[in-house]
Amino acid sequence: MPNTPTIQRDTLTPELFLQLYRSVGWEAPGIDQVRTALANTAATFTAMLNDEPVGMVRLIGDGGMSFYIKDFAVVPSSQSQGVGHALLTELERYVRQSIAPGWAVSLELISSQGAIGFYERHGFEARPNKWDGPGMFKMVRA
């Protein structure tokens, strides 16, 4: 039986962020940009397995109507072992505890192609659908 990951909240450092970000093949921003992003993040979640960091996710949002899942990464050797599930479960628990009773908020993300099924299994709906168009993205550079 595989080990169950433990999830740490708000312990993600810029250095660890870059390590996990690069582990999935993403082209990483500079450390100063990461430091600024982390300082303005609602919450971070880091998955630990056998005392080793194996995944992360950031949550950004307004605290009232919308939250956005960003930089969800699980090192390839730990994928399909419950790490992503544990991260998403803890993130959703945090959102529920952060909002007022009776509120409903939008939890949004842009999925990589290979992760669509994972998110659908966790209750996310793909876009486009009959009432919404596709998610949109634009990179702005200084």
From TrEMBL:
GO terms assigned for molecular function: N-acetyltransferase activity
Top-rank taxon: Bacteria
GO cellular component, one term: cytoplasm
Domain (N-acetyltransferase) ranges: 7-142
InterPro entries for this protein: Acyl_CoA_acyltransferase, GNAT_dom, NSI-like
Record Pfam families: Acetyltransf_7 (PF13508)
Signal sequence annotation: none
Alphabetized UniProt keyword annotations: Acyltransferase, Transferase
PANTHER family recorded: ACYL-COA N-ACYLTRANSFERASE (PTHR43626), GCN5-RELATED N-ACETYLTRANSFERASE 2, CHLOROPLASTIC (PTHR43626:SF4)
Protein name stated in the entry: Acetyltransferase
